[in-house]
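INFO worker-7 received task bundle
INFO bundle size: 2
INFO processing item 0
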Amino acid sequence: MAKCTMTEKMRRFFEEYEKDNNPLQAALRAGYSPRSAASMAKKLLSRQETSNSSDACSAPSEAETSQQTQSQIDRNAIVQGLLLEATTGEQQSSRVKAWELLAKHFGLLGEKSSEAQTMTVTFDIDLGESQNGCRQD
């Protein structure tokens, strides 16, 4: 079998799957969207069965790791900016839109499911200096 590159999200899926052997919940906890979690779980498990080990994939290269880290930093910056706008925005419409985008990002909006899902989202953002630099009233 050809070697593949296992991403951090894939590794997290297998770690979460080992906890309760629930592929859908493992995919959600690993960060896959509710819309794609079931299909990704199936795909990852079939890949694991084919290789008989979740370790069959090689570690990501330095370039891939750097790109993943930069992508994560970009996502975090976007989420922090949306949270800042949602909590301190001048216009109500911009605050509402920011909350909507945050909810979509965390998979809180989307397809209705017959299965209830619980998600806890914690924000830890220091607004100290950034408030002073963002707006001069």
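INFO item 0 finished
INFO processing item 1
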Amino acid sequence: MQRLIPVNSLDDVPAHYRDTPIERLLAWHNLEASFGPVMRAELLVGMCMDNRKVLRTPENFAFVIRSGGANLRHNEFKVSFAIGVGGVRAIAMVVHNHCGMAGLSQRRDQFIDGLVDAGWEREAAQQHFDAFAPLFEIGNEIDFALSEVTRLRNRYPRVLVAPLYYDVDDNRLYCIRET
């Protein structure tokens, strides 16, 4: 099964995202569409801290939380703020290919060596990695996005939550098929 849905025209946007902030995000980013000025945030974007990704959106359109692997589990209060105070009713969960949080355990030596180079004691760097890597490892990016979307939908049942995929090779957003 093809897990990604390319969005090359508005007709490609899945029906349940039409006339929502998710459609507008896809149109602005992929299609360079314009919907006029935005007066207040309509969307919360949860995305990875990776420096290779930049979304094309107008000012005021979205709250953005950047966290390794787009992992929002440790940013719950910020999500609640965007919903409770900011009034957003849609969340775009944006994962990407070539994510450093996928397969994190394979980067253990690199992580530790980098901290040692930055002045850490080796044993402290090892303990740091071993204590925190399990909290931040996401496994497969698409599977993680789908599990996080399910978690967020259960937590915020009246908020539209969409799993999206950013391809760092072509700088485009894709919808993730959920079935």
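INFO item 1 finished
INFO post-check item 1: The mean pLDDT is 95.
INFO post-check item 1: The CA atoms of residues 80 and 155 lie 10 Å apart.
INFO worker-7 idle
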